[in-house]
Structures are given as structure tokens and as C-alpha cells.
Amino acid sequence: MKIVTLERILKLGLTNFWRNRWLSLAATFVMTITLLTISIFTILNLVIQATSESVKSKIDMTVSFYDNVEEEKIRSLETALATMAVVKSTHYIDKDEALSIWQTLPIKDRTKQLVTKDSNPLPRSLQIKAYNPEDLSKVAEFFDNYKPLISRISYENNKDIIQRLINITKFIKQIGWIISLIFITISVLIILNTIRLTIFTRKDEIEIMKLVGASDFFVRIPFIIEGALYGILASILSTFLLYLAI
User: Fold this and answer.
1) How many other CB atoms sit within 10 Å of the CB of residue 116?
2) What is the longest distance spanned by two Cα atoms in the chain?
3) Structural domain spans, the chain
4) Cα dist from 62 to 91, 150, 155, 169, whole Å
5) How confident is the model over 34-51, as pLDDT tens digits?
6) pLDDT tens-digit map of 111-130
7) Fold of the CATH domain 60-157
8) Cα 14 to chain center, whole Å?
9) Mean pLDDT over residues 163-176, rounded?
10) Is the pLDDT assigned to residue 3 strictly greater than 60?
11) pLDDT (tens digit, 9 = 90+) per residue, 8-23?
């Protein structure tokens, strides 16, 4: 392509953008709102996912053992748990650590003083985390064969709460993706209609250009330049507005 022809095409694209400035302004405004909306919902979706992962990471199971159970036995159960594919981590809490945790609880000092190192009724326990909270039910099934050793499993008491948290995080994530998909679809439709409207308003101009022998490339490229200008301006404006909003 000759440099002169390229220069003329660029000039024509810029001239058309300015000559139809109200249409250009409307198209740029629509694209700015579209990009801004997509950006906001993308950020919200990322925040929702981060919140969902944070909630999941805090869901665990605590298995408390009777005092007559040997530590060796608890340790062997911990080793067996570590071999399970669904288990992310295990942590053994002895009586001393249980006492330390007790001392940090937000309860009255008088209540805290009821438990001391010499008189410590707090049980030893295993704290277990799964890669997916849904898999804690499989861990609970593992302990079905060791019920005589176990005084309490937190999963049994908190099963409904855990399931509710799992359902909420799944629902929030799905809603985030659905909303993003809806707005992306709306964006594409708006951009297509803007292009159609631009071509329709230039119908006579295109026919004249064809009559004087302009090639398809020469006719199309100014529209591409205009579209690029819409996109560049819309990107700058939406980024600026998003920066102000954040």
C-alpha cells in the first residue's frame, strides 16, 4: 500500500469521526459504559471468588479423643489421614496447646481460670482440613470405625452450617459468572448495533465512493479506524472512571 493512500485513509477515518461527532460521541459513550460495566463485574467476580476461597480455607473438622486413648494411636490415625487424597492438612493438638487456645478465647477470666495445667479436662484432638469442604464427609466416614475412641466430631455438629456455606459460595460464584456473561453478550450486541448504525448513516457516502471506483478495502478501512478510535477513547474513559471509583 502506498504511503499517500494510507495517509488519505487515516485522514478520512479521523475526518469521518469528527464530522459525525454526535454519533461518535454516542458510540464512545455506549462502549465506555459497556467496558466500565464489564470491568466492575469482573472485579466483583474476582472479589467473590477470593471471598469464596477464604471461606473454604476456614472450614475444617476437629476430632476430639477420650483421655484414655494413647497418643500413639492418635498419631497413627493422623498418619493414615495424611494418605487420603482429599485431606489437605492435619494438626495434632495436645493438652498443652488446647490450654493455650483456651486462654485466648474471648471468655471471662473467671471461666478461664477453671482450666489450669494441673487440672486440664480439655481433650486432645486432630484438626483436619480438606481441599474441598464437601470432602469432609469422607473424612467423617473414616472415623466411623473409631467411634469408641472419639468423644466429639465437630463436623457432626456443624454439618448443616458447613453445607450452607458451601452452597452459598457455589451460588455466589455461579451468579458472578452468569452476570458477567450477560453483560458481555449485551456489550457485543451494542457494539454490533453501533457499527450497523454507523454504516446505515453513511449509506449514500459509501455508494458514491463505490461509483467513483473506490476499492472495498478503501471503503472499509475508515470504519475500522473509527471503530478503533471508539475503542481507544472508551478504554481510556472507562479506565479513568474505574480509577476514580476505586
Assistant:
1) 9
2) 102
3) 3-54+170-245, 60-157
4) 9, 11, 7, 22
5) 788 778 777 877 887 787
6) 778 788 888 889 999 999 98
7) Alpha-Beta Plaits (3.30.70)
8) 40
9) 75
10) no
11) 666 766 676 676 677 7
CA distances from 74 to 65, 125, 165 (A): 8, 8, 29
Share of the chain above pLDDT 70, in %: 86
Cα 193 off chain centre by: 31
Q: What percent of the chain has pLDDT over 90?
A: 20
* Helix (H), strand (E), coil (C) string for the chain: CCHHHHHHHHHHHHHHHHHCHHHHHHHHHHHHHHHHHHHHHHHHHHHHHHHHHHHHHHCCEEEEECCCCCHHHHHHHHHHHHCCCCEEEEEEECHHHHHHHHHHCCCCHHHHCCCCCCCCCCCCEEEEEECCHHHHHHHHHHHHHHHHHEEEEHHHHHHHHHHHHHHHHHHHHHHHHHHHHHHHHHHHHHHHHHHHHHHHHCHHHHHHHHHCCCCHHHHHHHHHHHHHHHHHHHHHHHHHHHHHHC
- Give me the sign of the Cα torsion angle 116, 122, 123, 125: negative
d(CA 38, CA 25): 20
Beta strand pairing call for 87-93 and 150-153:
unpaired
pTM of the model: 0.56
Instruction: Name, in order, each residue with C-beta under 8 angstroms of 121's C-beta and a sequence gap of 6 or more.
Output: 115
State the CB neighbour count (10 A cutoff) for residue 21.
11
